[in-house]
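Below is just one:
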Amino acid sequence: MSSRISRISRSFLLARVVFFLLLAFGVGPSVLAQESGGSLSGTVKDQQDAAIPDATVILLDSAAVRLQRAKTDENGAFTFSAVLPGSYVVEVERAGFARSSASATVRPSAETRVTIQLKVVGPGQQVIVTAELGSFRTDESSTATKMSIPINEIPQGVGVVNQSLIQSQQDIRFGDAAENISGVNRDVLASGGLGSALTIRGLPLGVFSNYYRDGFTFDGMVPADTTDVDRVEILKGPSSVLYGRAASGGIVNLITKEPLPETHGSFSLQTDRYGSVRPTFDITGPLGGSGKLFYRLNAEFADYSSFRDSFGDRRYFLAPALTWKPDDATSVRLLFEYLHARTTTDYGIPALGDRPAPVPISNFYGEPWQYSLLQNKLGSVDVSRNLSPRWTIRSRFRATLTNWDYLDVSTGFLEADNETLARFSENAHYPLRFYDSQTDLTGVFKTGPLEHNFLVGFEYGYQSVVQDAIFSDAPSINLFHPVPFSQTMPDPATLTANFFNPASPDYFPLDGTTKLMTHGGYLQDQITLARGLKLLAGVRFEGFTQKYDEIIYDTHNRQGDYKTLPRIGLTYQPIQPLTLYASWSRSFSPTLAAQFTPGGEPFPPERGNQYEFGARTTSFGGRLSSSLSFYKIRASNLLITNPGNPLASIQIGATDSKGIEFDTAGRIRPGWDVTFSYSYNQAQIVSDPVYTVGNVFQNAPRHSGSIWTVYEVQHGPLTGLSFGGGLRALTYRFVDPANDVLLPGYARLDAMAGYVFGPQHRDQKLYKLSVNIQNLTDRKYFEAGNTPSIIYPGSPINVWSRFEVRF
């Protein structure tokens, strides 16, 4: 049956891939006919008036539609011919420099000239995305290189979900947005909620090592909404050369919204059919009259409901930010975030046999009063200064203080009658403290005929994770007729006697502290070897010390190691719209010391190697960007939840992940935007003392893909109306490395409609109303599973409505 499912799904998805490959990589006629007219030429220079060769110059009309592209020669010069009379914008982009633009008016049979100056950008500096308004295409990513380098010059798989796509889908969890990228799928954390845990290229991400916020790690279990997120960036495969300890699948980096020099604001209210209410607020602008101080405030006050019985989630989020620019060379940014969330912990439903149990997907197997309480506080300072027109230094520090409190009951295993579900209880407190600092220096220079875009940096990190927990048995519950033990929280004496009974053989306390200290230095250089040929090479020197001290059982673990981690890649642009690339990279990630083998020894670090090659291209006058990649990753010592005991962990000896990915995003014609992704992945166990070699790795579908398209009416009485939809499809997955439990594949259909109306405000209508229907066909499906005991069903048909006021 599995083979038949796989063949059908393969044919279904490959048909779409072939169509979009032909569409994106084919050489078709130009969208815009070229007629006789004037010419537009110019020169691109740096801040010292030196010519900048090999810069990309883009000609846009007054509607922000890209018409022509050109490259500057060795003198920094460019020319556009046969330009019709009218007003235009000329944009310039070059690796190592901030984008710049200039306006120009072309007259019949006349030559118009412009001079554009570029400024060098700092390492990891916020990228200003200048794609067409509303387009799903993004040209740059700071995550992949910590520098402003166009995506087509990055020799590794990269994906970006920008604000336009997030808004059109009404994505609240960043994981929902990330699934628009090929090879990115939903995973599960054993923390009582689906959250935004992800796999990339069939491999799980480390909770404390693969999730980033503005380039700093954060706890992947923290429910991070998109409230103050400008875009979600994905770097696929090993990324340790820049980010140190990171598992092999890749990293997720949330780029937060920047304070802006002009006043903008919006208030929105979202609701759904289950009674969720989510008001958000976003305002930015200058402070005082100096023009040097800017602010931004994002806020969320949400009360979520669900199709799951007894579920509730109430959260408050505030994120004020300040940017101070005392002069043209200096920038200081302060960011603070505060999140308070009280959530019903929900462990989904268990499996019965080799499938999810045939029970209503609304069934809840906990207690109505159980909860997790989270308080997360974050503060950071970011200082950047241009030392010269071609050199910039940047230093950053961030502190994150997180407190988790759990009081809940979670599912265990089914007893022999296949009806009685054993449960265990948790009364736990988890204070976490993350402190990180980074200092980077970037510069652009030449050595003879070679041009360098150079980065050198070092960082230090300290993490402290305290575990103060008691686990015990809990009253069992019937799988088919779940009746809670108590509708209201019992008094402390009853709670202790029934849920935390020291006389129980399953009772055990956990009282320990993990401390992890990391330090690393790294070098990276993008070298222009010849016109169109660039080498990106980097190396990191990474060391860590980790210790774990458990008080009750007097367990003490120590780990330490030092590694050299390289990355090397080539990009070659044989013709203007096509770039080829190839790369090799490694990863290295120490496991959390509190997780140790049955013999009391710490798990060895995870390691990985990746080989990748691919191609990127543009079509439709540069408005549609596409990429095709082939990769192979060998990952060893992958840490996963023990399928027989969700409180413990095990390691898989070695896993191979190999596959093909295709992405395309952009604007086919004015008002019509589309994004499409497809992934073929084989993630299999290749070495392990317990599990069979050849077994499919958990939560790794063979085929997965998505399409989302929106059209906005451009003219006539329906101007301002937009509508669209999309499909998300997966083939079957297993939830355990033994391949004992299978989650069926599914295809989920979504739709949307929106309308902007009211008086004009800053080139936009004042009001916007959006309606998104998720799972339009009311398909029953399962998003992901962690073990046979923890499987999360997807939501039935849901309707999200959003009303926004801009001011």
